[in-house]
């Protein structure tokens, strides 16, 4: 193993997760990166169960684990507190229901030091509650890749890249005073697109090191039996698509058609997931989404980055989305 001298800080926000937190923290604390150079910061975000006590017990077990307790403010708030306390040159993030491979941070740190990259990424997989593995969301490259911030942004806008900070080490200085947006989901994407213009390059490793534990009922995941539940992430991704388009116009104007495609796709995703019961005239956001699609049907038809399937779906939905969704549900017997 390489001799390391670079300190990294790993931030773990925790809220009402007492049963899964030990596995998460233990996976980081038992990694093969030198403990004296691995600062683990657990932020108890106002938990109402035993999470705070479990976190304190873990800090007593592991010398490199520090716990902070705060009033409930959400994952972004907890992460931001962790950033303010971090003393490492590079930052990593792990969600408290996930866990990592023992070699993840040594591989990321080695690549960061060797290449001088401000950001390094490793692959991830997703594991269900029953232990089965879901299809990979992001394809892991066969060999190490080095790409520019602009190239990474393009992959995010085409839904082929990974916006998560959990699969990465990021140079703390690259963040500057930027922080995760509080009170929103899809927070990684928002911060990622703003940080990218400030980094020198991204190195992507040909390994899987981060393991997502897919829990039904978590913030962005819908329970199948709760037909009227509509996670706020679907509205946040639409808002963030507009933020991305504004940023692209300023930083990378030649990517505007790709960013426009991203906005159309996110609105399609919204229209395909919103419960029919919420597709009403008094739902202002829904009406704005429909209006946007209708106004841009010409651009949608001609956008070279949209798939034929997505163009067809948007054109079918635009005239009467509620009726189309209702008919679709009747045909499927939902």
Which helices and strands appear, and what pairs or packs with what?
Elements: E1 8-14, H1 21-29, E2 38-45, H2 51-61, E3 65-70, H3 75-85, E4 90-93, E5 99-100, H4 104-115, E6 119-128, E7 145-147, H5 149-157, E8 168-171, H6 172-175, H7 187-195, E9 202-214, H8 233-251, H9 256-273, H10 284-295, H11 297-302, H12 308-317, H13 321-332
Parallel strand pairs: 1-2, 1-4, 2-3, 6-9
Antiparallel strand pairs: 4-8, 5-9, 6-8, 7-9
Helix pairs in contact: 1-2, 7-8, 8-9, 9-10, 9-12
The CATH first-level class of the largest domain comes to Alpha Beta
Cα-to-Cα separation, first versus last residue: 55 Å
C-alpha Rg, in Å?
A: 21 Å
CATH architecture term of the largest domain: Alpha-Beta Complex
Helical residue percent band: 40-55%
Q: What is the count of helical runs? A: 13
Question: How is the CATH topology of the largest domain named?
Answer: Spore Coat Polysaccharide Biosynthesis Protein SpsA, Chain A
Strand proportion, as a percent range, falls in 15-25%
Order of helices and strands: EHEHEHEEHEEHEHHEHHHHHH
Spatial shape: globular
Note the main sheet. Answer: 9 strands, mixed
> pLDDT under 50 segments (min length 5)?
219-224
The SS-based structural class is alpha/beta
CATH superfamily of the largest domain: Spore Coat Polysaccharide Biosynthesis Protein SpsA, Chain A
The tally of strands reads 9
